[in-house]
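Suppose you are handed a protein chain with no further information: no name, no annotation, nothing but its sequence. What can you learn? This example shows the usual starting point.
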Amino acid sequence: TGREIMEFLIPPINFSTKAGFYKKEYAPYTKYRDDEINVEIKRGKILSGVLDAASVKQGKKSGIYHIIALDYGFERAMEAIYLMQQVSTEYMKTEGFTINTSDYVYGPETQKLLDVAQEALLRKAADLTARLNNGTLVPPIGMTVAQFYEQSMLEILKSGDDPLIPILTTVDPQKNNLFRMADYGSKGSAYNIFNIMAFLGIQNINNHWIPDNYSYKRTTPWDVRCPDDAYARGYIRNGYVTGLNGREQYANAAKSRLDIITKGLMTAEAGYKNRDGFKCCESLHTTNRNLVVIERDMIVQYIYGDHGVNLKYMEQTKFGYALISDAQFEQSYGVRDMVRKFPTLKTLLEATFEQLRQDRDLYRKTYLRIEDMNTNMFIGDRVQLVLNPERIVRNVKNNYDHKGSP
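A reasonable first move is to predict its three-dimensional structure. Written in structure tokens, the prediction is:
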């Protein structure tokens, strides 16, 4: 089997994670196999799961290659990458992989469900426009009515996951190669599939809708002045399967033009900054006291990276009790039962529980402060550390025979 072939290529590592293709919100509509959801490797034997982007993606922190590098060295990790590449190449030579029309064409019943979902979005947009025309749309402090209306309309016309449900009920993602490429992290995403099979929805230009640059307050030559309908502002109700009409192609072309320019500028700017940064750092070196210095021993950092840790050894570590409620925390980490069994350890157990509680509160306070300053960073239960207690415990459990142990 495929798992047995992979077992020949990796050393006896212990690894556990959730498969990347599994989406909990899609579970009611998708037939997931129970033995593929969780990736479980015990001493090099693949017990369950699929090795997708969550396990073997390039640059994946705490992925299989990272674990091999930490446990067996970086040369062994490079060897595993090479061997897997050779196996996958030979597989593609003999078996191949392709998509066809049946992967993205659906029946009339699915189209009816998509039409219902799309009409629901447009009704919400029409209700918002009615509030604007009636004078009942009140913006928050710091925004004009026009700005608030535009922002609210863009938020409403975002398709979300609801229109994707009819497609999920029609196709089998485990057999549909178009879905498989996106789910396993090879190419594309659910957003791309949605644009192909359903509809493109609202097209925004730098988080704004299509501007009214034609004549006086016209978005296109064939629209009225001061348009208040979604189509005039760049809404596309067709997908790439059904095809775009001329009016919709205007909005799609405007968005595509911006994407091409943005990608080109970002690539050029990032490349320049990287080259500039590397040139600036060429003369830096680390002393035997872990100081980062430049020529003539001018100190740049008193300790490497301000923490003294080699980033290659940082792992994604789960902070298990960070986001659970007080009741769950008491149930999972409470010491009442342990105190009854070991009364002599009461002081130590209670002190340990209190320390865990203080650590949780400090973690929450710190990350909530970060979240307040940066809206793109949200509090989670995983942090990067050089020590991964969960993996240490897993290694001990899998590598040591506990038969007869207390």
